[in-house]
Amino acid sequence: MTLALGCIADDYTGASDLANTLARQGLRTVQTIGLPATAFDLSGVDAVVVALKSRSIPAADAVASSQAAAIWLRAQGAGHVLFKICSTFDSTDAGNIGPVTDALRASSACPMVVVTPAFPATGRTVFQGNLFVWSVPLDESPLKDHPLNPMHDANLVRVLSRQTATGVGLVPLQVVEAGVDALRARLAQVQAEGCGMAIVDAVFDRHLLTIGAVALGYAVSTGASGLGLGLAAALIESGRVTKADPAAETEAPMGGHAAILAGSCSAATLAQIDVFAGQGPVLRLDAERLLADSEGQVAEALAWARPRLGAGPLLIASSAAPDQVAALRGRPDAGSTGHKIEQALAAIAEGLVQAGTRRLIVAGGETSGAVVDRLGISGFRIGPEIAAGVPVLRALSGQGPDMLMALKSGNFGGTDFFRDALKLMP
Ligand SMILES: Nc1ncnc2c1ncn2[C@@H]1O[C@H](COP(=O)(O)OP(=O)(O)OP(=O)(O)O)[C@@H](O)[C@H]1O
Ligand SMILES: O=C(O)[C@@H](O)C(=O)CO
């Protein structure tokens, strides 16, 4: 059996978000961490999401790792490759959405790439090329304060044009609303005008069904989970995949200690930490001290955690409010602070697992990447959905520790997310 859909995600939470969407739509989906090191049994699998940590690395490195993933996915039979980006279009003028899309387009001789980060289930909609996060334009949303890629422009045609040499067209909502033929015609038109990519508007899931049906006709597309939903529906509709029942698999409880690690400084995660503080022990790490003496702070955090683990879930966070994050950004070593904090949280994760933690929730995409890499996990099967975009993940047995995880995108989940997650991670 060959793969119906190959996906390359630019971070690990984004990968599990997409894998969740594909599984809920009825695709048998596996998430791998990077490219599998050894031969990988894909029997019965419809879609693979290769999770990369390529969102915030130099563009040339992101291109190289994405190209390698695309080659592998195509070798497994994937007729279409979706490049999964963040639903808030996290990127800078240097990339990496434009450069990676350019490279995937060139290597598959794809004349036009549909690009849409719309994901209505989490309030991300695109209208006239402008990205909204619930009711506010992207540049007025909490993403304006992001520690790594503050977003100051909601107009995605402009944002993407700064990242690529090819023209970026726009397919407005009225065209998508008119259906697949109108969308195909508009894409042909923008291509004739010299564009190699087009931002496509979408406000409701029905728009993503139209977009998915059309995007499947090209070799490559770029988007968030909403586009995944459309592509999955199109694969089932066309008969290329037989719909699976996502609730069919039941799993034995994992047991072991439970812990939460937060490195996301998003508004949603900050609120979730505050709510959890009323339910269990919370250790708030001081970023300045963490940067000055990482080893000492990691040791202190583990000394705090070990005697508490047996009593129930606990939470350790480096997360801080926008003013503190901004203060850190003013330091001369600002370029490396995020990475250092991620590594400290990864070291804490490792210590927690050594102490018997088998259920681990991580908030933040970059943070999740560092943690999963440190734990040596090579892939996940997709379990029940905790909140839109966040599934329970079961580490593939025999590779890395046997455990349940939830990798929460910074801005996802309701205020009681951590308790909701723990209920589904027995
Ligand atoms: N107190 C802090 N001050 C500044 N940066 C921090 C602090 N705590 C964590 N960070 C860094 O901020 C970045 C947060 O990125 P991360 O991807 O983990 O979360 P996010 O962007 O909110 O989530 P997502 O990418 O899933 O939307 C990481 O590099 C993390 O190390
Ligand atoms: O699309 C999203 O918003 C998330 O899956 C994500 O990528 C956050 O890192």
TrEMBL record:
Species for this entry: Acidisoma silvae
Principal EC category: transferase
Every Four-carbon acid sugar kinase nucleotide binding domain range: 259-418
Superkingdom classification of source: Bacteria
Enzymatic reactions: 3-dehydro-L-erythronate + ATP = 3-dehydro-4-O-phospho-L-erythronate + ADP + H(+); 3-dehydro-D-erythronate + ATP = 3-dehydro-4-O-phospho-D-erythronate + ADP + H(+)
Main function: Catalyzes the ATP-dependent phosphorylation of 3-oxo-tetronate to 3-oxo-tetronate 4-phosphate.
Keyword Secreted applies: no
Keywords, in A-Z order: ATP-binding, Carbohydrate metabolism, Kinase, Nucleotide-binding, Transferase
Its EC number(s): 2.7.1.217
Protein's name in the database: 3-oxo-tetronate kinase
An MF annotation (GO) of this entry: ATP binding
Limits of the Four-carbon acid sugar kinase N-terminal domain: 5-229
Cited Pfam families: NBD_C, SBD_N
Family note: Belongs to the four-carbon acid sugar kinase family.
Family annotation (Gene3D superfamilies): Four-carbon acid sugar kinase, nucleotide binding domain, Putative sugar-binding, N-terminal domain
NCBIfam families from the UniProt entry: OxoTetrKin
